[in-house]
Amino acid sequence: MYPFGKGIRRLTPYLLLLIPFILYLVYYVGPSAMTVLYSFTDVTNVPGSDFRFVGLDNYRELFTSGNSAERWDSILRTVYFMAVVTIVQNGVALLVAILINQKLKGDYFYRAVFFLPVVLGVAVVALLWSFMFDPVNGPVNKLYRVFGYSDTFFGSFDHAFEYIIFVQIWMYMGYSMLIFLAGLQSVPKDLYEAGYIDGTSRWQSFRHITFPLIAPAFTVNILLSIIGAMQTFDIIVATTDGRFNTRTMAYDVYKETFRGTLEMGLPSALSVIQFLFILVFVIIVVGRLRRREVEF
């Protein structure tokens, strides 16, 4: 049977999908393809200006020019940022999700509290933590002074990047927590009861029952964390504006595109490099996690 009828009516679902497909091509595939194309040209941001193909010159300039050391620092800093955020954010989110899943009193309140930073927005979060980390009268620094320590927080060359990592984890941990919580609530209770009868401990129940069954949720969270961390630039702009050793690849793309020279070829090349880094990490990590799901 054909729910949309026969004849030309059978094309109805395809016609309904045609508009979003066209919008996807125009606003996603098109700009992505043009970015790759521009990375091989000397195109500028001046309307109507001519441009020519320069081959791999933009890519060479990224890693051989006078500020190539800063590029490598940004790449290493991005990888460090991605690794710490992915591991800590998902570890804390899983722990919180397990605690909330224990049917605590007021669990819906806790869910809302932990998810609230996700909906606040970067500007509000940056303003909030700039106040909390105020080096003069901020409450965190007052607490530090009780223990005989003080810091300049977002103004510190040594620690500013770590504080940005903390803010990133604080902001998006609630999102990961909800995904884990959805996975935990889908685990059949009968399996825990059977394990209890067999004498399994809580750790054995988690290792052999809970974790294998929430493996898809774990994979999704790792994937989202890697992509999100590798693309993060807004919280850096709002807190340090790339100063104090906090520049990442995403921030460099933003700065070169919107606040640098009028050249578009160089930031396009940097965007392609950033995409390749994300692609490599996603293929390696998520591919491994998918194999683990099959093994479980």
Automatic annotation (TrEMBL):
Q: Which UniProt keywords apply?
A: Cell membrane, Membrane, Transmembrane, Transmembrane helix, Transport
Q: Which SUPFAM superfamilies match?
A: MetI-like (SSF161098)
Q: Give the primary localization class.
A: membrane
Q: Where is the ABC transmembrane type-1 domain?
A: 75-285
Bilayer topology term: Multi-pass membrane protein
Q: Where in the cell is it found?
A: Cell membrane
Q: Which residues cross the membrane?
A: 12-30, 79-100, 112-132, 163-184, 209-230, 264-286
- What InterPro entries would the database entry show? ABC_transporter_permease (IPR051393), MetI-like (IPR000515), MetI-like_sf (IPR035906)
Highest taxon above the source species: Bacteria
Instruction: Give the family, as the similarity comment puts it.
Output: Belongs to the binding-protein-dependent transport system permease family.
The identity of this protein, by name, is: Carbohydrate ABC transporter permease
Name its species: Paenibacillus thermoaerophilus
Q: What is the lineage of its organism?
A: Bacteria, Bacillati, Bacillota, Bacilli, Bacillales
